[in-house]
């Protein structure tokens, strides 16, 4: 048996009780369940990675499927070859590295949108991470962060506080300013090559010999004769 490390995004449901690990020797071959994991944590802190030691080959293709308390299954995830990572998970890691306070589920959603828009695809999980340049990784990370902070600004911060005698204390989420968000957007677009200026100059028009002119003010039209 071989050991394979798997990284994934857990479901946003409170009744999950089991994780199924599936394996196939080829990308499109039949999947076989190789392990069922019940030690998955509790909602909303389900595990988001797992190392299985039941793999037939660490170069095979793997997928996961979740099971709820009533025995119903989620859809099977996208397949991933052992030792690799989807472009979505790579982008999530880069987002979380820059701001660990961000909710990972929120990071996943915004990463999916950012990747779908930039690569013009309905399925960001099909993007090959090896085709993404270092500059693109940076730009996509900044734009994803900007989307996350915009959502926080729109929703508003949660602030709680209490007063003990004459001492008042407050705790809450510190939001980024709009100026901070705009700088992230500008830098992200620069790294993605989206910042450019375009100067257009019309070619001079020759009218030849003009013998007269008529002005139609109803259409802001000048007719040269």
How would you characterize this protein structure?
With 225 residues, this protein is of the alpha+beta class. It has 2 domains: 2-81, Immunoglobulin-like; 87-191, no CATH class. It has 4 helices and 10 strands. It has helices at residues 87-98, 104-119, 134-155, 178-191; strands at residues 2-7, 16-24, 32-37, 49-55, 61-68, 80-81, 159-164, 167-172, 213-216, 221-224. The longest helix has 22 residues, at 134-155. It is elongated. It starts with a strand and ends with a strand.
- The number of domains: 2
Major beta sheet summary: 4 strands, antiparallel
Quaternary state of this entry equals: single chain
Give the helices and strands as they follow along the chain: EEEEEEHHHEEHEE
Tell how many strands the DSSP assignment holds: 10
Uncertain residue segments: 158-173
**Could you give the distance between the termini?**
90 Å
Q: What is the helical fraction, as a range of percent? A: 25-40%
Summed over residues and divided by their number, the pLDDT gives a mean of 85
Please compute the radius of gyration using only Cα atoms: 27 Å
Strand neighbour order, sheet with most strands:
3-2-5-6
The best one-word shape is elongated
Structural class: alpha+beta
* Residues in β-strands, percent: 25-35%
Distinct helical segment count: 4
